[in-house]
Amino acid sequence: MMKKFLVLPGDGIGREVCEAALPVLDLLNLPIQCEFGEIGWDFWCQEGNAIPAATWHQIDMADAVLLGAISSKGKQAAEAELVPTLQGRGLRYTSPVLQLRQRLELFANVRPVWRLAGQGMPFRCAIIRENTEGLYAGFDRQGVPESLSDWLTHPNLARSGLDQAAISVRLQTRFGLERLFRYAFDYAGANGYSRVTLADKPNVLRESGQFATDIFLGIAAHYAGIEAEICNVDAVALDLVRQPQRFGVIVAENLLGDILSDLAAGVMGGLGLAPSANIGHGRAYFEPVHGSAPDIAGSGRANPAAMFLTIGMALRHMGFAAAADRIDGAVLQVVRQGRCLTPDLGGASTTQDMASAILQAVTRPR
Ligand code: ATP
Ligand code: MG
């Protein structure tokens, strides 16, 4: 059956790497109908929403959505000028990525990690980060409410006073954790991993740690062939650098997962090689981990590999695993050969040259 694939190129190098990598869809000759949509800063300026209504309609009809990048910084100066006019019309800028996550309830952020370039033992694992609750659930304020003062008996609080303190709450719910862990074990099964590691801090955050651990083990009991492991997040960070080959799937709450994901992107050789997926129930969007990179936009220096790998993840999601394998293999081949690399990987090739080498490797693998 024909699948609908919506591409939102967005801003900066997002547009450049989309243009360079999307021809791979023609080469692979899949039953996919590719459509383009508008999103980004310019649309907020014009319409008061970075995701126009017509784009929402396209998103709702799509089997998978591919996002190039959305500018978060760089345009802030312009924003400062525009804000008074637009806010006068009752408009506030909300990040399109946040809008997508909330409206589609994308509860899991998936980042496959593997060593493609550089020294050290090859490895492959995946980090799955909870996307809706944890320390980023939105309970974050300056000043401690009087009603909590019986419970919060820290000596420094008495020294500072309730109004000279700030508080953030790590919210974890059975609903949120069960769907996350279930997805992590399903992902492990579907991608050939034999271990799922919960990265948390149960030795210090005893109550919330115990709560998460119990739910984790409860879900694990339904997946006989997959080992469930509980680790302190600091130990996981150390091992990601020292012996990443010991991991399969690593699952963590929002903030801890955020940090581990970026650490892992560094271990695998930088942002130019890191793809990601945001997953909800039957909904998904895919984007390279990097942003719009205003510092190199327009210079032909953007590494297109992350976008190729991201397209691979989207294809896998739509049921085209063999095609995704071909893309992964082609990227690996070009990176290993080292003849056609962009400056971030130590080469002197342009976005277009490296993309052409990857496209050629898709057609004629070695
Ligand atoms: P944004 O505001 O869109 O998040 P940013 O300033 O955070 O942009 P990122 O895109 O997150 O920029 O990139 C961080 C750094 O990594 C930049 O110096 C950028 O040039 C570099 N970088 C990111 N992606 C790539 C890529 N695909 N190829 C080469 N360099 C990259
Ligand atoms: Mg960024």
What would you say this structure looks like, in words?
This protein is an alpha/beta fold and 366 residues long. It is 43% helix and 18% strand. It has helices at 13-21, 23-28, 41-47, 53-61, 76-88, 96-103, 155-160, 174-190, 206-220, 233-242, 254-267, 305-317, 321-337, 351-363; strands spanning 3-10, 32-36, 64-69, 108-114, 124-130, 140-142, 166-168, 195-200, 227-232, 249-252, 275-279, 284-288. It has a ten-stranded mixed beta sheet, with helices on both faces. A two-stranded antiparallel sheet has the order 6-7. The chain is globular and about 65 Å long. The mean pLDDT is 91. It binds adenosine-5'-triphosphate and magnesium ion. Belongs to the isocitrate and isopropylmalate dehydrogenases family. Keywords: Oxidoreductase. Residues 4-358 form the Isopropylmalate dehydrogenase-like domain.
Can I get a quick summary?
Residues 4-358 form the Isopropylmalate dehydrogenase-like domain. The chain has 366 residues and is of the alpha/beta class.
Helix-strand layout with pairing:
Layout: E1 3-10, H1 13-21, H2 23-28, E2 32-36, H3 41-47, H4 53-61, E3 64-69, H5 76-88, H6 96-103, E4 108-114, E5 124-130, E6 140-142, H7 155-160, E7 166-168, H8 174-190, E8 195-200, H9 206-220, E9 227-232, H10 233-242, E10 249-252, H11 254-267, E11 275-279, E12 284-288, H12 305-317, H13 321-337, H14 351-363
Parallel strand pairs: 1-2, 1-3, 3-12, 5-10, 8-9, 8-10
Antiparallel strand pairs: 4-5, 4-11, 6-7, 11-12
Bound molecules: adenosine-5'-triphosphate and magnesium ion (MG).
